[in-house]
Amino acid sequence: MNSRLSLWSLGIHLALWYCHLPAEAQVKKVRASLLVEPRSLVVDIHSDVTFNCKWTGYPPRSLTWAKKGNNMVLSNKNQLHLKSVSRLDAGQYVCKAIVQRFGVVEKEVSLTVNGPPIVSGDPIQYAVTGETGEVKCYVAGTPPPDKIVWKWRDDALSERYTVEQSKVHSQGGAVLSTLIINNVVESDFESPFNCTARNAFGPGTMTITLEETGTYHLPHHDYISTICPTRPTHLLRPYTTHLPVHLYPTLHL
Ligand SMILES: *[C@@H]1O[C@H](CO)[C@@H](O)[C@H](O)[C@H]1NC(C)=O
Fold first, then answer.
1. What is the pTM (predicted TM-score) of this model?
2. Which region is the signal sequence (predicted)?
């Protein structure tokens, strides 16, 4: 009966095999250690990147580089070269060695790619005339933005608008910027809003159009069926009634 014991300590891996029953135990030792330890890197967008990784010891081992969460082999060499990196190259990379009769040893490093802020959000957002409206954008990427600015036409935004900022933990540390419109008026629907974030690498912008949703004054029946206005995908909440309302999203006027 064979059993195996693996020890992991400071990057040195030991395996002990008990090849026979304990009475005549024979211990074999396998060692795998990192001769060149890969380092996490922070680089600027479009630069070339090289990660180094070298496992040493006995018996011989085969080495692969892959991106974490993706099994595609990027390199079988000690070095992993990435040319002109983009935002999509950022993430975790794994240098993995297969050591015969031992198993797999691996070391993980991260690549951070600095560039202009990445601004995202819903390109069409909704508000109701006369109520408080909100336009939201998310700003992500490294380095963090120095500034997030909302623009509408070429004017400075009046006191009717205020901006709130908060961190969003579910979005990898992105910043949520919310433009709050006090008392939405018709003209708010006429021109798009720009959410622009800036850091040392330049600006990132997103243009958001605000569309109007209506308010229904429903007649007082027990059950009311109504239909969606121009945008059947956007269901309206019944603002002026507590009666049950059935919405038929596929119909429109
Ligand atoms: C909003 O952004 C678009 C695209 O970047 C640009 O063409 C437009 O001039 C900007 N508008 C304002 C008001 O800054």
1. 0.65
2. 1-25
